[in-house]
Amino acid sequence: MTRPANGLGTNGNLINVQLNLFKISMSPTNNFFHYNVEIFSAKGTSPPIAMKKRIFKDIYAKFADAPDRLGPVFDGDKTVYSHKELDPLEGTVSVASFKLPPEKEEFKYILTEVERPKWKTSDIFHLVFGPQGPTMQNRSEGERGNLMGTARRAMQALNVAIRYLLAADCPSTSRAFFPDAAPSLDIGAGVLLRRGYITHVRIGNTTNLKAPPDNLFLAMDMTCATFLDAPPEGNPANTLADLCCKILNVHPQRLCSLKEEDYRKLHKILRRFKINIIRGESDKGITKSIDHLTLTNSRNEIFETDEGKTSVEAFFLKTWGRRLRFPELPNVVTIGKGKKTVYPMEVCSIRKGQRYILKLTGDQQSSALRFQTIKPAGRFEQIMVARQHVMDSAHERLLNAYGIKIGRTFVEAQARVLPPPVVEYKNDLRIPVRDGQWNIAKPNLQLLTSKVLKSWAVVICTNAHLPEAALMNFLGGLRTKLIQLGVQVADAPPPVIRLTGQGTPQVKEALEKAGKTAWQSFNKNPPQLFLCITDDRSFLYNSIKVEGDNFASRGVTTQCMVIKHVKNAKDQYLSNLALKM
């Protein structure tokens, strides 16, 4: 089957399909003003991006005067766009910090005009209409380059204007934002998977080269990201001890007698995360970063004071009037102002909205995959909910100031449901296709063209018990199935290599050993395939694929399978596996 030269065909039934696009209508006469902003604390340091977003909300409010009460928009780093000229370009704002105590801190901002600070929304038409557009006619190459540069900046301004209010009050990345009201899933070990949304202005094809353009769209899709689980502030379950129980999947009493491997796991996950610490009823609180947990508890952790030796438990009772409820819990050592300080675990709580960037376990990956796997109808429904609830009236008023109006319904396009292809096997054998599937286990079904499997090896990537007899029986059945499909397989059984550890270096070492052994076993033929037997939902899958692709600088095909199928190999499974190989 080939695509017609003009890109269109006639086969199949015509249907209308929805796209995750919303039509953008643009006014060509609105102005854009482009600035760079620098923000400094009282100490002259630049705040982190999350704090910059909070600071810029106050800068926005300073410029949002009458008559429209709308201010400039910010990309979260240094770029600012405005629908009107800004004056004055310097000032200060007082903003409450994320840290405890919740006191306001003064920040200075300086806005600087870029080289060409002003353009109109119509400048984007150079990019929308392309090189054949009316604005590009009779232009030199240099002039065209300048116009396209201006159009790209205008496109960036549109994206920033659309995203600004969406991402201003929730965690965000350079591409996505994660509203608090969006669905989320606890995937275990103190990790929360949050749904987010991606927006981006897209340009479609057009034959209409007259303004306003009809090929400008807002693409909106879903994504996910992992965060450290932190219940709402003030929730009794928002203590660091509760999070540690989730990470280790243990009862709170177990925290009083942790093993060394438990400490290592907690240290790996919690190090550098921010915690809020409330030491007593009169304390406004402080925010610190976790360094590690102690092997001692608050009752037997002793340190020196001006009045002599004391325990952490006694110090908190005397200094803060707080009698610890759980003095047997480990202590938390924090980093701040160049020194390390010890705090009882029960006075600490995790700060909300912190990204979790460590590698997920196999079970977590499976839960995340199920959460993200949504049928098209459900996906479009959730995107529409986000369109309706996230882009509220305030957002639409801001976009109107930039000459932007976003449609409320999905863009529709025509598509065709093509007839099923003819599946042809060896000896002109044709198989009927129904509902997109056909019987691959039919007897005497051989591939139209097949290669010779001259050299291969088996790599066992699990510590689970696998009897030699069961493995040999499985490999014999697999070889028989390959031959039935028309694949010629070497007579000798493949060598079997076992992984010596559960990590990427061990995977690389095992594949190298498997390749060398296969080369020796099959008359110096380089290996063509590694059959890798893993646990169910193994976290080694990515490592196996990467190391297989990089094997001997040329790559070797890797086929993963789960150990349970070795012990109970069914004919249908062997057929599926043979076809994949």
From TrEMBL:
<dbReference type="Pfam" id="PF16487">
    <property type="entry name" value="ArgoMid"/>
</dbReference>
<dbReference type="Pfam" id="PF16486">
    <property type="entry name" value="ArgoN"/>
</dbReference>
<dbReference type="InterPro" id="IPR032473">
    <property type="entry name" value="Argonaute_Mid_dom"/>
</dbReference>
<dbReference type="Pfam" id="PF02170">
    <property type="entry name" value="PAZ"/>
</dbReference>
<feature type="domain" description="Protein argonaute N-terminal">
    <location>
        <begin position="15"/>
        <end position="161"/>
    </location>
</feature>
<dbReference type="InterPro" id="IPR032474">
    <property type="entry name" value="Argonaute_N"/>
</dbReference>
<protein>
    <submittedName>
        <fullName>Uncharacterized protein</fullName>
    </submittedName>
</protein>
<dbReference type="InterPro" id="IPR003100">
    <property type="entry name" value="PAZ_dom"/>
</dbReference>
<feature type="domain" description="Protein argonaute Mid">
    <location>
        <begin position="433"/>
        <end position="501"/>
    </location>
</feature>
<feature type="domain" description="PAZ">
    <location>
        <begin position="271"/>
        <end position="366"/>
    </location>
</feature>
<dbReference type="GO" id="GO:0003723">
    <property type="term" value="F:RNA binding"/>
</dbReference>
<dbReference type="InterPro" id="IPR012337">
    <property type="entry name" value="RNaseH-like_sf"/>
</dbReference>
<dbReference type="InterPro" id="IPR036085">
    <property type="entry name" value="PAZ_dom_sf"/>
</dbReference>
